[in-house]
Amino acid sequence: MGSGRARLQVADLAYTYEGRTPTRALDGVTVEVGDDEFLAIVGPVGCGKTTFVRIVAGFLPPTRGTALCDGRPVAGPSPERGYVFQEEAIFPWMTVRQNLEFGLLAKGVPAPAREPIVGELLGLIGLQGYERAYPAELSTGMSKMVEVARVLATDPTLLLLDEPFGPLDAQTRARMQEALHAVWAHRRRTVVLVTHDVEEALWLADRIVVFSPRPGRVRAEVRVDLPRPRTLETRLAPAFTALKRVVWRELGLGEGSRA
Amino acid sequence: MVTAAASAPVRRALVALVALALLYGVVSEIGSRVLPRRIWMATHYIEDVELTPRYASLAEEAVFLVRAGILQASVLVSSGRVLAGVLLGAAVGLPLGLAMGRAAGLESLLGPWVAFFRFTPAFALLPLYVLWFGFGEGPRVGLIATAVAIVTLHGAFEGARRIPRVYLDAAASLGAGRVLVLRRLVLPAALPSLVSSVRIATALAWVTIVVAELIKPAMPSLGYLLALAGAYPRVPTIVVAIATTGVLVLASDVAVLVAYRWATRWMRRRVG
User: Fold this and answer.
1) In percent, how much of chain B has pLDDT > 90?
2) Which CATH code of 3.40.50.1000, 3.40.47.10, 3.30.1130.10, 3.40.50.300 fits the domain covering A1-80+156-259?
3) Residue A225 forms contact with B (CB below 8 Å)
4) Chain-chain contact of B175 with A106 (C-beta, under 8 angstroms)
5) Is A80 helix (H, G, I), strand (E, B) or coil?
6) ipTM for this prediction
7) Which of B170, B189, B271 has the CB atom closest to A93's CB atom?
8) CB atoms A150 and B191 under 8 Å
9) Domain spanning B2-265 has what CATH number?
């Protein structure tokens, strides 16, 4: 894991939001993500982690630096880099099936070929029998999983997840993390997960990059050498807690009380 | 189901009708006894005019109008004009509004014109339309279509413009082209706004038709029936014509409302 050639190569990335008082969101970020590696980015609110994935997704042109996916520079959004939004981006007027099919429709895949792909994805997220349901009938967590599956339908080389379970309560989030873990175990690929939740990052990722407060810079890299498949026991293991301590320290927490 | 979706607005319309009918019954019973029966018209008094005709007189008048075929023919002709005007107006207004909502260039080009005509009463165009289209169906349908086009254009414009950015971004990152975005995103997202603008436009079409039918008035039509009855005067005919128009407005509103509920069924949470 994490070995092999780099899928994503980001070098000296910087981004400044223009305006009356320009905001430097990112400054000189260099990150490489290997083939099939699960990378998590954690950092304080406003550290530019969303800006980082939005640049990689192709929604923002960087102010400075380069982002290469499979050796090619990122130029605009593409189904090659599947992006799951922080906001709710499931299409509410489409059924679950129509949502899952959308990327295939855009690619011009004919109906008979779409059928098995959609069927497999429904099974993967445990929503068989719900293909004709509208998003309003699903829980927030499940509709997020539909968004993940919708992105996977076109088989992207890179999966970008921007705080996918941000607004969920802790229990639902843990359940969704398990669902995501199961999907990833089935469909191994390169993932970049942005999250503010250290436990989420540790439980899912192979490696964690910690961003500094604004402007975002890479403050530390933490390798997560926890065995897979990960379970509830993983969350409770001493090794997990030890890694948690390292990441929290890198985030600069717990130092205030000592001072 | 359409029938299930329809039941609520239909029930509300029926309650309104029954309440109105009861109220009129009371008013007419009192009015026919209290109000004077002779009125001053133009140059002379007209004797024995029932200003608030009772249901007995109305029924008698309705039976006469139906036996003579006047009421059916008027309803048919006026409804046909409303339908033609709404279809024509919506066929122009809806696509243009959608296009304006999606293309900034078109919006700045057409925006001021829409703003100007939005608050211009359609009737102000009447003399011009008669000159352009002559007497006949042209100016009548044209007037309705103009009023409908402006309302639906605005509804479609707002609907197309208010689609949340995140949906367009999601579609772009899934590789969707312009046509797919228009068909699968813009159109359904704007649909509630489209249909509600058609609803307003249909009501407006009925307001417009009665006046439009005063252009070179010719039987049969509801507008002309009203004008003629007013000139005689035949109050029962006026009341029957008003009631008929009211029922037609209500019926067409319910029809559009049913379409609206169908178009927005994805908004309602159902038990999965």
Assistant:
1) 39
2) 3.40.50.300
3) no
4) yes
5) coil
6) 0.89
7) B189
8) no
9) 1.10.3720.10
